[in-house]
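Friendly challenge for the regulars: who can give me the structure tokens for this chain first? No prize, just bragging rights.
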Amino acid sequence: MAERGTSPSRPPGTPPARGDDGIRPLTKAVSVFVLPFLTAAVLLLYFFPGDTEQLFAWTIQPPLTAMVLASAYAGGIWFFVQVLRQDRWHRVRHGFPGALLFATLLAVATVLHWDRFHFGHISFITWATLYLVTPILLLAVLIVNWRADRGRPDAIDTTIPWPARILLALFGVAALVTGLVLFIVPTVAVGSWAWDVTPLTARVIGTVLTLPGTVHLWLLLDSRWSAFRWVFQAQLVSLIFLNLALILCREQLLWENLVTLPVVATLVLAPVAYVLLYVYCERRARRNRDAGAL
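First reply, four minutes later:
Bragging rights claimed.
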């Protein structure tokens, strides 16, 4: 299902031409492939975070970390559902590099901490298979869609103001750098993070942080609201799940650590900033539509 106000769709059965902004069939197929796994992971990690020793591929402690990972997966569900709904590559393209980095880092973390996993458990077999295959599939998606987007806006669109783009890009750099530091040197977070972490869970948290970091960097190159609208929706979903997790697991927060207040404040304020920008850009896009109809 395409959004209103877009350019006419191709006739059914017609393959997308290079540069027509169409989403290649492989993209939809990969979305269909990953959605059941993401859904199962959210159900297990968000609703049963204290039972990962029995239910999941590896034991995650404290439960807050399990819910953080589930929150990232919840945003992924929203994103890949939008990929299935849309017919324009530029609307979803900026979410795929982050998803590729996310899947690749989790695959590396799995190898580095192989001894922590529950060998033979169906969840481990699923996890290992998923992170062996998914990075390859996501890379293939980026390759087949590489020249699909010519930089054209939607029929109903606007530009994101440059101050917002710069601020979000700076936030993205901070998130990406923090995430990579946690992944490369996870021991720096042990005993100093906002809640208890191990080297493996520090790497997982770092991997989650690379998602918004990677997305926001594209704001330096692309000002089209339609290129970020659906990705920002996915990030909002993740942040809603994250904030609820903070409330439910508030006793697990280590307020004596210096990073706790900044981390919590960022997670609380981020959805407010996203909503304000979202509403502003939606109103501008509607005004552009109304002005064009006169």
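Residues 25-293 form one domain. The mean pLDDT is 93. Your move, everyone else.
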